[in-house]
Design brief:
2 domains, 7-stranded mixed sheet
Length: about 450
C-alpha cells in the first residue's frame, strides 16, 4: 500500500485497455451503419411517394381550386433516428436497507436531450408557387443527404474513419466509468448517452478502485532490487490489472461496475484542489508535504466518483509492503475497514465476507503465507501524517471539516484488500502470476455476492 514518487511509466493492462476501446468503437460503427441504412430506406420511401404524387391525374379544368404553398419535405418526413434499446429490469440489491443514491447518475443520463434528428430542410426557391418542380426537389434533397452521409462516414468514429486513434485531451475533473452504458450517435456521428436507456433502478452498483496510479506507484520492487528470488513489480500496475479482472466477473453476475481509475494516470490528473482545503500537490516545503496534499485530493476524487455513481459497495484493491528492518520476512493477507461509521457494522460484515473467501482461495492455491485477519483501520501500525493527520483511512473513513483536514466521506460500505506483501520474495512471486491474480479477484467477487445475498434490498 505505501507509495512513492517516480518510476518507469506503467504498461500494465495496456492490452486490456486497447480491447475495451476497440469494443466501444465497434459498437459505434454498428450504430452508425444501422442509422445510415434506415435513412437510406426512408429516402427511398420518400422518393417513391413523391413520384406517385407527381403522376396523379389532374382534376377537371372546370374545377376551380387554390393550391396552398407546399410544406418543406422534411416537415412531413422527419429524419429517422437510430433505434435506442429500452430500459431493462435488473436484479435487486442494496446496502443494508439504506436509502439508495444510485439514481443520480441514471437520471443525469436519462435527461440527455435527443440530438439525433437532422435539421429541417428550407423551402426551395419558387416552392411557394404552383410551378415548383418535384423532381428537382428530390434531387437536391438526395444530394444534401448524400453529403451528410459522406461526412459521417469519414469521421473518426465512422466506418471509414481511423477509429479515433488520436489521443483525446484529458480533463481535470474525474468522471466515473460506468460499464456498458448504451450510447447512440447524432447526425454528425458524435457518440452520446442514449436518452431513453439506463441501468435498472434495482441493479446493484459496485465501485472498484485500483489503488495508487499516476505519480503514486504504490509499493515498488525496483530494478536495483531485482534478484533471482523475486521479480521487479509496481503495486499500481497490478492493482489496475486486477481491477479489470474483477470488473469482468461482477458484470457477468449482473452487477454494474464503476471504476475510479481505468488507466495508469491519476484520477486527479492535473493536481486540482479537489477537497477544497486550499492545498494541492504543488504546495509544500518538501516532497513529503506535497505528497500528503496530493494524496488528500486524489483520494477525494475517488470517493466523489463512488458517491456520484450511487454505489452500494466500494472495494479498493491494493498490495501490501513493509518498509524497514525485517520487512522481507513479513507475509500474509488482510482486509481493512472503518468501524466508526453509521454503517460500520456493514463495513465489518463486508470485510469478513471477502476475507473468508480470500482465505479459502489462498489455501486452495497452495499459498504458504498466513492470514493477518480483518482489521479496523484505527488499529493499523502504519505511520500517520505529521500535518493534516487523519485517524482513519480516507477512502473508508468519516468526513473532516477543519481548515486543513477537509474531506467528504464515502456514502457506502467499503473495504481495502491487501492480499500479499511485495516486500517478501515469495509473496511477490505469487502475485506476479496472472492465474493467482485471477484466483484473488474471484474471491473478491464471491465475497461481494455473499454480501448482496444477505442484503438484497
Amino acid at each position: 500500500m505505501p507509495g512513492s514518487f517516480g518510476s518507469n511509466d506503467s504498461k500494465w493492462s495496456g492490452e486490456r485497455e486497447r480491447q475495451e476501446r476497440e469494443r466501444q468503437r465497434q459498437l459505434q460503427r454498428e450504430m452508425l451503419k444501422q442509422a445510415r441504412l434506415e435513412r437510406e430506406a426512408q429516402e427511398a420511401r420518400d422518393a417513391q411517394a413523391a413520384k406517385e404524387r407527381a403522376t396523379e391525374p389532374e382534376s377537371t379544368p372546370t374545377t376551380s381550386r387554390t393550391t396552398p404553398p407546399r410544406e418543406s419535405l422534411s416537415a412531413s418526413t422527419p429524419a429517422v433516428e437510430p433505434e435506442t434499446p429500452s430500459a431493462t429490469t435488473e436484479p435487486t440489491a442494496s446496502s443494508g436497507g439504506r436509502s439508495r443514491v444510485g439514481r443520480r447518475w441514471r437520471e443525469a443520463a436519462g435527461a440527455t436531450t435527443d440530438t439525433n434528428a437532422l435539421p429541417p430542410l428550407p423551402n426551395l426557391p419558387g416552392d411557394q408557387k404552383r410551378g415548383g418542380s418535384t423532381s428537382s426537389r428530390i434531387i437536391i434533397f438526395g444530394a444534401i443527404l448524400f453529403l451528410v452521409m459522406a461526412i459521417v462516414a469519414f469521421l473518426p468514429f465512422g466506418p471509414f474513419g481511423d477509429g479515433g486513434s488520436s489521443t483525446p485531451t484529458p480533463t481535470a475533473t474525474a468522471q466515473p466509468v460506468i460499464a456498458s452504458v448504451p450510447t447512440t450517435v447524432n447526425a454528425a456521428g458524435t457518440p452520446q448517452l442514449a436518452s431513453t436507456t439506463t441501468a435498472g433502478d434495482d441493479q446493484p452498483i459496485v465501485c472498484v478502485d485500483a489503488g495508487h496510479g499516476g505519480w503514486d506507484y504504490g509499493f515498488q520492487r525496483t530494478w536495483d532490487q531485482m534478484s533471482t528470488t523475486g521479480p521487479t513489480l509496481n503495486e499500481s500496475e497490478i492493482n489496475l490489472g486486477m481491477a479489470y479482472m474483477l470488473k469482468d466477473i461482477l458484470e457477468a453476475n449482473g452487477i454494474t461496475v464503476v471504476m475510479t481509475r481505468t488507466t495508469g494516470a491519476a484520477v486527479n490528473t492535473y493536481g486540482a484542489d479537489v477537497n477544497g482545503n486550499g492545498l494541492t500537490i504543488f504546495d509544500g516545503a518538501d516532497e513529503k508535504e506535497r505528497r500528503q496534499n496530493g494524496d488528500w485530493d486524489e483520494l477525494q476524487a475517488r470517493v466523489d466518483i463512488c458517491n456520484a455513481a450511487g454505489a452500494d459497495l466500494m472495494i479498493s484493491l491494493h498490495i501490501n509492503g513493509w518498509e524497514g528492518d525485517g520487512g522481507e520476512d513479513v507475509r500474509g493477507y488482510e482486509v481493512l475497514y472503518t468501524q466508526e461509521r453509521e454503517f460500520g457494522d456493514l463495513n465489518a460484515e463486508f470485510a469478513n465476507d471477502v476475507y473468508r473467501r480470500i482465505s479459502q482461495a489462498m489455501s486452495n492455491a497452495g499459498y504458504t503465507g498466513s492470514g493477518r485477519d480483518v482489521k479496523p483501520d484505527n488499529e493499523l501500525e502504519a505511520g500517520r501524517y505529521e500535518f493534516g493527520s487523519a485517524e482513519h483511512l480516507l477512502l473508508t473513513g468519516p468526513s473532516y471539516d477543519e481548515p486543513i483536514n477537509k474531506f467528504r466521506e464515502s456514502e457506502m460500505p467499503g473495504i481495502i484488500c491487501e492480499p500479499v506483501f511485495l516486500s517478501n520474495d515469495e509473496d511477490a512471486n505469487f502475485i506476479a502470476q496472472t492465474e493467482n491474480q485471477q484466483i484473488l479477484v474471484e474471491a473478491y467477487a464471491a465475497g461481494i455476492l455473499d454480501y448482496f445475498a444477505k442484503h438484497p434490498g
